[in-house]
């Protein structure tokens, strides 16, 4: 059996032609999307997917057409959080049909292609040798396909939930030069602020992507019984100060609210369940500020 080291040129697969075709489809697809916004942290577990879904819901409630792309190929959670697991993607006249959540979010995720709960993402190859070389390339190819081949229709916003890892935004920016900006998510701990801070620097200085704002997640939890408020993450510097140091807007503090996790597990919109909550108002305010900022960009471009 040959490994790719033994194959002369592209082995007759016309891989360059295939990629060029896919990139052309990507460009054509994105002409119908007004703004692509990435949600990033660099750090896992800080609530990036939760913020993506709730920000998407808030934009939807403001009357925008919104899609959510789960770019976390190996840790896909958006389908579960939006209640669309079980939807089987099929080909339609304009491409692969995306799932539509109960509220109207258009969703695409690797999760929809997995046959069961216990099946991880695995790539078929003639040999698993050197997998560390080709796996990232295959994953970028999959991401390109998920965007290019999905029949998103006309969208005002496509939110991209990035995987953890400092280079995730740079990879996406390479793929999508039309990226309008990124939203940073951190929790209040010093550890998280360190990692997320580096991602913000990388976004601004290396990837050349505007950071539209930074939001702090999992702020103090208020006990429903006694009303006592307890901070979950130590006494690190405030995230508001961190945003200031990095020269990016501070979007606010989303409290730790068990109803957020419950809604995510059940795949139902939190904003409908607790419309008067502090968290729902932060998501709505974020949506306002992002929509306004990108409207400005539109006006300048005209
Ligand atoms: P990430 O995408 O950064 O890995 P997730 O969005 O998957 O993180 O969040 C991790 C877990 O924390 C999930 O179970 C989610 O429901 C929960 N969670 C996130 N933010 C909050 C919050 N503000 N209050 C309560 N639970 C939250």
Q: How large a portion of the residues is in β-strands, by DSSP E?
A: 15-25%
**Cα distance spanning the termini:** 56 Å
**Low-pLDDT windows of residues:** none
Order of helices and strands: HEHEHEEEEHEEHEHEEEHEHHH
- Biggest sheet, spatial arrangement of strands: 5-6-2-8-1-9-10-13
Largest sheet: 8 strands, mixed
The kinds of small molecule bound in this structure are: adenosine-5'-diphosphate
- The counted number of beta strands is 13
Describe the global form. Answer: globular
Please state the average pLDDT score: 91
Radius of gyration, in angstroms, nearest whole number = 20 Å
**Discrete helix count:** 10
Estimated structural class:
alpha/beta
Fraction of helical residues: 40-55%
Question: What does it look like?
Answer:
The chain is α/β, with parallel strands linked by helices and about 300 residues long. It contains ten helices and 13 strands. The strands form three sheets. Strands 5-6-2-8-1-9-10-13 form an eight-stranded mixed β-sheet, with helices on both faces. A three-stranded mixed β-sheet has the order 3-4-7. A two-stranded antiparallel sheet has the order 11-12. Strand 5 and strand 6 (about 105-110) form a beta hairpin. Helix 1 runs parallel beside helix 4 and helix 2 packs across helix 10. The longest helix is centred in the C-terminal third of the chain and has 24 residues, at about 280-300. The protein is globular, with a radius of gyration of 20 Å. The relative contact order is 0.17. The structure holds adenosine-5'-diphosphate. Adenosine-5'-diphosphate binds next to helix 2, strand 10 and helix 8.
């Amino acid at each position: 059996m040959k490994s790719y080291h033994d194959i002369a040129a592209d082995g007759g697969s016309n891989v360059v032609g295939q990629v060029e075709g896919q990139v052309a489809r990507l460009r054509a697809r994105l002409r119908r999307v007004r703004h692509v916004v990435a949600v990033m942290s660099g750090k896992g577990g800080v609530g990036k997917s939760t913020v993506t879904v709730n920000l998407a819901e808030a934009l939807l409630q403001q009357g925008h057409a919104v899609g959510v792309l789960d770019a976390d190929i190996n840790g896909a959670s958006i389908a579960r959080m939006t209640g669309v697991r079980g939807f089987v993607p099929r080909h339609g006249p304009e491409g692969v049909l995306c799932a539509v959540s109960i509220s109207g979010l258009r969703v695409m995720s690797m999760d929809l292609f997995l046959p069961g709960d216990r099946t991880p993402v695995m790539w078929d190859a003639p040999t698993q040798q050197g997998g560390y070389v080709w796996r990232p390339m295959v994953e970028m190819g999959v991401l390109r396909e998920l965007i290019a081949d999905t029949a998103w229709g006309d969208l005002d916003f496509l939110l991209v939930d990035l995987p953890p890892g400092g280079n995730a935004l740079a990879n996406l920016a390479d793929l999508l030069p039309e990226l309008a900006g990124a939203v940073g998510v951190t929790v209040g701990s010093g550890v998280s602020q360190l990692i997320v801070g580096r991602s913000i620097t990388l976004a601004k200085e290396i990837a050349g992507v505007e950071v539209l704002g930074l939001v702090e997640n999992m702020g103090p939890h208020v006990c429903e019984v006694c009303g006592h408020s307890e901070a979950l993450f130590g006494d690190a510097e405030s995230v508001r100060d961190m945003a200031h140091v990095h020269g990016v807007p501070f979007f606010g503090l989303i409290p730790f609210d068990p109803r957020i996790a419950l809604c995510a597990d059940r795949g139902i919109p939190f904003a409908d369940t607790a419309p008067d909550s502090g968290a729902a108002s932060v998501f709505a305010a974020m949506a306002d500020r992002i929509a306004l900022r990108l409207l400005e960009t539109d006006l300048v471009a005209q």
